[in-house]
Write a structure and sequence with these properties.
The chain has 312 residues and is of the alpha/beta class. Strands 2, 4, 5, 6, 7, 8, 9, 10 and 11 form a nine-stranded parallel sheet that branches. Strands 1-13 form a two-stranded antiparallel ribbon. Helix 1 packs across helix 11. The longest helix is centred in the first third of the chain and has 21 residues. The radius of gyration is 19 Å and the shape is globular. The N terminus is likely disordered.
C-alpha cells in the first residue's frame, strides 16, 4: 500500500478551494482541474524516495513520480545543517548544486532550474517541475558572509540563517537562551535580501525570527512550519509570528510532520486544521504547503512503519 503525496495535495486543494472560491466555480471545476490548472509549489520537498542515498542519481521511477506529481516547483534543500565547519559546509553546497544541475540537465523533460519567479511561470507553461535551491542553515557563511555572493551565483534562492541550534549568526528554535541575531547575523540578513534570496525563518528561534523580520525590506517566509496555537512545539509559529510574516508580504507553509498532532500520527484533518488556522490569522494569500516530505510515495513496509512510530 502506498500513499502518494499528490493525492493529499489534491484533497487539500479541494478543501481550501471550498472556503476560498465561489460556489459556482467549485461546481464547474473538478478537483483534478483545480489542481492541474494551478501553479502548485511545495515550500519544502525532495525529489526521490526513502531509498535514495545522498548524491545518488534519481531512478526512472522516481523521475516518473515527479512528472506525475503535477508540482510546478519545489524548494529543495542543499548542503548540511550545522554538522560541518563553515568551509566544508560551503564545499558541500557546491557539490550538491553540481549534482542537481546534472539531474536537471539529464532529465530536462521533467526538471527546470528556477533562478527567478519567471522560471516558475515557465515551468507551469511547459509542464515541468522547477527546482528551487535552498539552504536550511547559514553555517556555510557564518565566518564569511561574502560567500553569499557565490551561493547566489550558483543558484541558491532560499536561505535559513539558523537551523535548530545556535551558530555565529543567531539562535535556532531549540536554544533556550533565544538570544536572537548576532551583529554578523544582522549583516547576513541584509545581504541575503539585497541579493534577492528569500529569507526563510522556519527553524530560527523566536527572537532571531523577530529580529530578522524587523530588518526585512522584502517578504520573508516560514517555508515549513505549523501553528503554535494548535500544538505547542518549538518548530511551530505563534499567531503573532504568522501575522508578522504576512505583513512583510511573505508566506508561511504548513508541513506534514508529527508535531502537528502533539506526538501522535498526524492525519489529513490535522493538516487542514493548521491550514485553516493559519489562513484565519494571516489571510489566504499568505499561507501555503511546505510538506517537508518526499515526492515519491512511501512504501508502507513493516520496517517503515516501525521507523515512523519511533520518529513520531
Amino acid at each position: 500500500m502506498t500513499l502518494a503525496r499528490r493525492e493529499f495535495l489534491q484533497l487539500s486543494s479541494t478543501a481550501l478551494g471550498s472556503a476560498m472560491l465561489l460556489p459556482g466555480l467549485l461546481a464547474a471545476a473538478s478537483s483534478q482541474n483545480l489542481y492541474s490548472n494551478s501553479i502548485v509549489i511545495d515550500g519544502l520537498g525532495f525529489p526521490g524516495s526513502m531509498d535514495s542515498p545522498d548524491q545518488s542519481e534519481l531512478s526512472m521511477e522516481e523521475i516518473s513520480d515527479v512528472a506525475r506529481s503535477g508540482l510546478t516547483a519545489v524548494h529543495l534543500t542543499l548542503g548540511e545543517v550545522g554538522t560541518m565547519p563553515p568551509l566544508q559546509a560551503f564545499e558541500k553546497i557546491i557539490r550538491d548544486t553540481t549534482h542537481w544541475d546534472a539531474e536537471i540537465s539529464s532529465n530536462s523533460e521533467v526538471f527546470l532550474a528556477v533562478r527567478s519567479s519567471a522560471d516558475i511561470q515557465t515551468a507551469k507553461s511547459v509542464g515541468k517541475t522547477g527546482l528551487i535551491y535552498g539552504l536550511q542553515d547559514g553555517v556555510a557563511f557564518e565566518d564569511d558572509i561574502d560567500r553569499l555572493v557565490s551561493l547566489q551565483h550558483v543558484g541558491i534562492r532560499v536561505i535559513q540563517p539558523t537551523y535548530n541550534r545556535r551558530n555565529l549568526l543567531g539562535d535556532g528554535c531549540l536554544e533556550a537562551a533565544d538570544a536572537g541575531l548576532s551583529q554578523t547575523g544582522s549583516k547576513a540578513v541584509e545581504q541575503i535580501q539585497q541579493l534577492g534570496i528569500l529569507l526563510d525563518l522556519s527553524h530560527c528561534g523566536r527572537r532571531t525570527a523577530a529580529d530578522a523580520i524587523a530588518l526585512a525590506k522584502r517578504p520573508v517566509s516560514f517555508t515549513h512550519t505549523g501553528c503554535f496555537a494548535l500544538a505547542e512545539h518549538p518548530r511551530h509559529r505563534t499567531d503573532q509570528e504568522l501575522k508578522a510574516v504576512a505583513d512583510t508580504g511573505g508566506v508561511s507553509g504548513i508541513f506534514i510532520m508529527p508535531y502537528l498532532a502533539k506526538g501522535a500520527q498526524p492525519t489529513a484533518a490535522d493538516v487542514l486544521a493548521h491550514l485553516a488556522h493559519a489562513i484565519k490569522v494571516a489571510g489566504e494569500d499568505h499561507v501555503s504547503l511546505g510538506t517537508d516530505g518526499l515526492i515519491s510515495p512511501a512504501v508502507l513496509t513493516d520496517e517503515y512503519k516501525q521507523q515512523f512510530r519511533e520518529m513520531t
